[in-house]
Amino acid sequence: YSALKIPKKEVKVSDSDVQTEIDTILSSYNQVTDRKVKKGDTVNIDYKGMVDGKEFDGGTASGASLKIGSGTFIDGFEDQLIGKMPGETVQVKVTFPKDYQGKEVAGKDAVFETTINYIDETPKLTDKFVKEKLSDRYGYTTVKEMKKTIRDEIFKTNKTDYIWNHMIEKSTFKEIPDQLINDRIDVLVDGLKAELKSSNYSLKDYLSAYGIEDEDALREQYKSSCESTVKVFLVADAIAAEKKIAVTDDDIKEYFNGEDTAQYEKLYAKPYLNRVVLNDLVLKEIEKTTTVK
């Protein structure tokens, strides 16, 4: 790893890479609720359809996306949402065509109790938007600064990935302990379960949605990536031993920018923090003699 040379093309960041990240960030701010719906808007709605006061099959949905004016829904449905505000519930009255494929409702009058959740509109990226919406969370103050920071972060990630992939490829591993791999799999599975629970879903719901047979099958899917992670740990440990690198409390504080790490210790435990920081210190050691050419 000494004097590692990285081909520039391997870590180059394209404009499309930067734009993809920007689009991902902006997608979190697409829920407009402070103006009326107009033709051409895409709205997110919940609706419950009834004929003769009774619900019918296929007439209920939550979080449905509908472009007003697209003609996707029954004639007259979309027009009745124009001029309404997000948060409003509208009694949309329509008549099903006589030749409608659902015979039980064909030719009948129906009422759809429709709630407009929000207007789905990607915000325009301006200095004003960046300062008002992104400054606290990301630290950006202008569009120019945002793009540069994102480009630098992607470059850093690409470089880090290249270095670790190079180290794994060029290293010989006498043994990859199963226990280390299983420990990493446990971290991923437990994390997934906690995330699902916070959203009122179960692991069973997740497995069913993604066509995964059971938890054992899920763990098997994680095995390859976790083995790569363990290899990174072993390489980092070997270099740390060679360079006499050890993690101190000051190193941990510096890694977390001086934050109180008690919350992280409670969530992840001290050994995990040591692991993350050690990897970072070893990476910096490798980067001392690394060049991009």
Features:
293 residues, alpha+beta, five-stranded antiparallel beta sheet, two-stranded parallel sheet, 10 helices, elongated
3D architecture notes:
A hairpin with a 2-residue loop joins β3 (42-51) and β4 (54-67). The longest helix is centred in the C-terminal third of the chain and has 29 residues, at 215-243. Strands 2, 3, 4, 5 and 6 form a 5-stranded antiparallel β-sheet that branches. A two-stranded parallel ribbon has the order 1-7. It is elongated, with a radius of gyration of 27 Å. The chain has 10 helices and 7 strands. By secondary structure, the chain is an alpha+beta fold. α2 (15-26) packs across α4 and α7 (215-243) crosses α10.
User: H/E series, N to C?
Assistant: EHHEEEEEHHHHHHHHE
Residue-averaged pLDDT, rounded?
93
Task: Give the termini distance in whole angstroms.
Answer: 16 Å
Write down the Rg: 27 Å
Count of alpha and pi helical runs: 10
The biggest sheet, with number of strands, parallel, antiparallel or mixed sense and barrel status, is: 5 strands, antiparallel
In terms of DSSP E residues, the strand content is 15-25%
> Which range best describes the helical content: under 10%, 10-25%, 25-40%, 40-55%, 55-70% or over 70%?
40-55%
